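Entry type: protein chain
Record version: 2
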Amino acid sequence: MSTYPPTLSALAPKAINWSIALSILLILAGLFAILVPPFSGLAVTLIFAWAMIISGITHFVFAFKTHTTGGVLWELLVGAIYLFTGIYLLLHPLDALIVLTLILAVYLVFEGIVEIIQSFQLRPRHGASWLLFDGVITLILAIMIWRSWPASTVWVIGTLVGISMIFSGFSRLMLSLAAKRALNQSL
């Protein structure tokens, strides 16, 4: 029995196969998120709540690693805000989903405006019109969410997360398949 670690050429096929499997799972999870957007929206809200709680705990830990009084107080304050917000989101997930949908609409308004401004700044360059197109579509999406809010809460977060998961899954799958072809050609 050899005590040497496996070589890269021995690990690569396994890693690529795992990547393909994870890609397929990501695509399926995205489809599920789109098919059941209220459930996936709540799941995103709960994940966000737990991330806030963990961030709050982390700030408390870092507070005791800080060597200045102002740093300790700042870390404790930020940690308390994160922890309180996370617990509140966890205890009131429907309210949190409504607020997250509104925050998303506001974010998309600002993103659309920035993209439109950038497209005019980059105007003589090729591809600037795509940035303008992206900005207009982003603004239209923001207005759709805003005008139907809070009713849009039921579908917005879950649907957008599902779409993102599907695109990420397909991107990862195509990259994995290309790596697999390259590996097979090198053998």
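Comment: Residues 6 and 118 are 49 Å apart (CA to CA).
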